[in-house]
Amino acid sequence: ALQIAGLIFGGAGMVGTLAATAMPQWRVSAYVEGNMVVLESIWEGLWMDCISQLGTRLQCQFHGSELALPPPLEAFRALMCIAVGLATGSFLLALVGVKYSQRGQEGPRASSIFILAAGVAFLLAGTLALIPVSWAGGGIIRDFYDPEVPVPLKRELGAALYVGWGSSALLLAAGATFCHLWCR
Predict the structure, then answer these.
(1) Rounded to whole angstroms, how far apart are CA atoms 22 and 78?
(2) What is the pTM of this model?
(3) Which positions, given as ranges, span the membrane (predicted)?
C-alpha cells in the first residue's frame, strides 16, 4: 500500500511539475488602487507571455531571443526542466522497484537499490522544483509591496506557482515514502 501511495504521489508530482513548467500563469496582472482595467489580463510565464482580452481572446507570444532573457528566468527554466526530467526518471525507477519487490525475482537487495534511487531522485526533483517556484513567488511579493514599482507593473502570484508548490510537495512526499520503504 505504501508503494502504491508513493507511485501516486510521484506520478501526480511529475505531471504537476510538467504542467507548472509549461503554464504561462507564473505572474498575472494585479488590479490594485485605481488600476481597475478588467478588459485585459496579462500572464507572464517561463516560455511565453499572454494577454487575455475580455476573457474571450487570448494572444500568446513566445519569448524571442534566448540571449535577451533575464538571468533569473533562464535559471527558472533550467531548474524546472531538470526537475521534470528527474521526476520522470525517478518515476520510472520507482516503477521498476515496485515491480521487482512485487515479484521478488531479483531478491530484496535489488528492489532496495531501485526504491532508494527513486526516493533520492524524487527528493532531489522536489527540491529543484521548489527553488524556482519559491524564488519567483518571493520576487512577486517583494515587487507588489515595493512603492517604487509602478502600479501597472505590479503582478500577483499565478496559478502555475500554486501548481508548482503542490507538485513539489507531492514529489517530496514520494521521495520520503520510498526512502522510508528502503529503511524498513
Answers:
(1) 13
(2) 0.85
(3) 75-98, 110-137, 157-183
> Residues, the chain, total?
184
With CA atoms as reference, report the closest residue to 29 among 18, 40, 17, 19.
40
> CATH classification of 1-22+70-183, choosing from 3.30.1330.10, 1.20.140.150, 3.40.50.2020, 3.40.50.1980?
1.20.140.150
Sequence-distant (6+) residues with CB within 8 A of 97 are: 3, 111, 113, 114, 115, 117, 118, 178
Residues 6+ apart with CB under 8 A from 148: none
| Closest C-alpha among 28, 122, 17 to residue 79 | 17
Q: 108, exposed or middle or buried, with CB in 10 Å at 0-12, 13-18, 19+?
A: exposed
